[in-house]
Amino acid sequence: MLSKNNVLPPKIRFATFIGDWEQRKLGEAVSFLNGKAYKQQELLNEGKYRVLRVGNFNTNNKWYYSDLELEENKYANRGDLLYLWATDFKPEIWTHERVIFHYHIWKLVITTTDVDKQFLYVWLMNDREQIKKNTNGTTMVHVTKGNMEQRLFGFPSNEEQVKLGLFFKKFASIIDLHQQKIDKLQQIKKAYLQKMFI
């Protein structure tokens, strides 16, 4: 349902939508804002703001904090589109309270009215495998801001973008719901095993 070459329409499409997709460099539609580069000694065990790091999206449950008051573009607020540009290469829509986001995360600010945030999220998620082919570094694999700004981005009309974004958002919600059920069942299974094999 996403255009393979960013211009020709995809094989599967919602009824009533016709015509080729528009193509643009990502940097022409999106600003990539760098997070705060912290030194280890600046990260506190408690403070005013949580500091969002790449690991907090994956397996690391430890949070650091900061009391620093920074310029507005260093904070992520609920609903902001973020991009993990080191090790993981994926977008995330932030759903929690205001935090300071770390240097290895970009906040993506859409600078045009003809690109929908939820659609851009879906497109970036779909683009992960291509991104992995264009990474740099050996100790910390990453993608550069310059490469991201030059990536060709294909998109249909705003109305079709909104419909596609909501379509895939529903799938993600269903997957999350089932994952929560699986996690709960795994915990119940673990508890039974511990009680039955003491």
UniProtKB/TrEMBL annotation:
Keywords: DNA-binding, Restriction system. This is Type I restriction enzyme specificity protein. InterPro entries: Restrct_endonuc_typeI_TRD, Restrct_endonuc_typeI_TRD_sf, Type-I_RS_S_subunit. Gene3D superfamilies: Bipartite methylase S protein, DNA methylase specificity domains. Pfam families: Methylase_S. GO terms for molecular function: DNA binding. The lineage of its organism: Bacteria, Bacillati, Bacillota, Bacilli, Lactobacillales. GO terms for biological process: DNA restriction-modification system. Belongs to the type-I restriction system S methylase family. Transmembrane segments: none annotated. It comes from Dellaglioa algida DSM 15638. Residues 20-187 form the Type I restriction modification DNA specificity domain.
